[in-house]
Specification:
about 270 residues; three-stranded antiparallel β-sheet
Length: about 270
């Protein structure tokens, strides 16, 4: 383990030394608590983490954190005897320190190869890669036994699809049909979608207006179904990320106009 020796620097504001009064009582106890929490993270977590992982120490960034913390410890600040605006600003600085500490922890983990700063960073499939293969790393110096629960992103589900075609061109609606997500039909050939009840009676007829795609969705256990003609859809894992390469996108020349329509008809209710 590397040993990092620390030097205590005398903080100065211009030519006048700052009085660090962390041992004094404060009229605003929350300031002392925030100060202690920040100092504990620096001394007990951040600096030891970089030493144990043996990764480059961001000395300038770390010194800035110490400077912000020491500025909070001036007499009228830490004692809580200044005006409210001063102490409100102190709380903002402590929140800033928390953000900086989180960034330091993330940087240490990334430099040590424990985490990636972006999802699927460096993966051949780009940001849409899933966790079909992954590595579980134990950062502790001792063996860990027992079960651990983690959430993994998988591109495709192995569960059987609830989509059932009652006959060619007809989909049987069921409570579980949209549990996984919406149904999307690309390169749609039909220009009409009909909603029919269990007795074969038409309840709704939608003209898609020639839209190239169709989306069907509903919330879990909802007593409805949404029918939406689409001229575009979400990216999949094979998309490059460039807007010009987005599937289904409609490109218009300067001054050009795009118009789309759909129609709905609901038959009159019949007795029974």
């Amino acid at each position: 383990m590397k040993i990092h020796q620390q030097r205590r620097r005398r903080a100065r504001l211009g030519a006048w030394p700052l009085q660090v009064q962390v041992e004094l009582s404060s009229w605003r106890r929350y300031l002392k608590r925030l100060n202690q929490q920040a100092e504990d993270r620096l001394l007990g977590a951040i600096e030891p983490l970089f030493a144990q992982l043996d990764v480059p120490l961001p000395a300038d960034y770390l010194e800035q954190c110490w400077r912000i913390l020491i500025q909070q410890q001036a007499h009228d600040s830490i004692c809580g005897c200044s005006v409210d605006a001063v102490h409100d600003e102190m709380r903002t600085r402590y929140a800033l320190l928390d953000q900086r500490f989180d960034a330091l922890v993330e940087r240490a983990g990334a430099d040590a190869g424990m985490i990636a700063l972006a999802h699927a960073d460096g993966h051949a499939d780009g940001p849409f890669a899933d966790f079909a293969s992954f590595t579980l790393f134990n950062p502790q110096p001792h063996r860990i036994e027992g079960w651990r629960t983690y959430t993994l992103f998988l591109l495709l589900s192995t569960a059987p699809s609830p989509l059932v075609f009652a006959s060619p061109g007809r989909i049987a609606l069921s409570p579980a049909l949209f549990d996984a997500d919406a149904l999307m039909f690309k390169q749609l050939r039909s220009r009409v979608v009909r909603l029919v009840d269990g007795n074969g009676r038409e309840r709704l007829c939608m003209g898609t207006g020639g839209a190239p795609s169709l989306g069907l969705w509903a919330r879990r256990a909802a007593p409805y179904v949404c029918i939406e003609p689409w001229h575009g859809f979400d990216d999949d894992h094979a998309v490059s990320g460039e807007l010009a390469d987005k599937p289904g996108i409609v490109s218009l020349a300067p001054g050009a106009l795009f118009a789309s329509t759909y129609s709905l008809s609901i038959p009159a209710a019949t007795p029974g």
